[in-house]
Amino acid sequence: MPQKETIRKAQQDKRAGKSPTTQAGEFVHETIKKIRRGVHGARSARQAIAIGLSEARRAGVDLKPPKKGTVSEKTRKSAASAYKKGQAHEPVSPSRSAARKKALKKESTAAASHKALSQQAGTAARKRSAASRSAAAKKAAETKGPEERSRAARKAARTRARHARES
Fold it and tell me: pTM for the complete prediction?
């Protein structure tokens, strides 16, 4: 069950006109925090993200399920079910909730490590085209002000310099 603060942040994002994936990001962030605190675990960073997205859908975020052929049929059906429940504001069964918590308690917390999340981000990025990644970077740059853009550029330069020293 997501915290009230997370739902509030997602609603704030919606009012600000941000995309459903940005709103769902609040839930993913909360899931990662829970795993790091040891509230529960996950088998992989990918599962941790999936849990957050499912919670977002169930909380009513207008995050459509993935299209046919992009993910496994089981995943698509699960996402469609969560989306439907969230749009209808159906309550979650307490026994199902307890079973989910019990199962996740047994999993490792390594899924929320910086390394695991970084690897997941890299894997996801590799599946996208260069044009798609470039467009996302340009869009992100537009959302920053001149001060923040300058800070990001300095950070990028430091990272490039560090990588050059390492290799």
Answer: 0.80
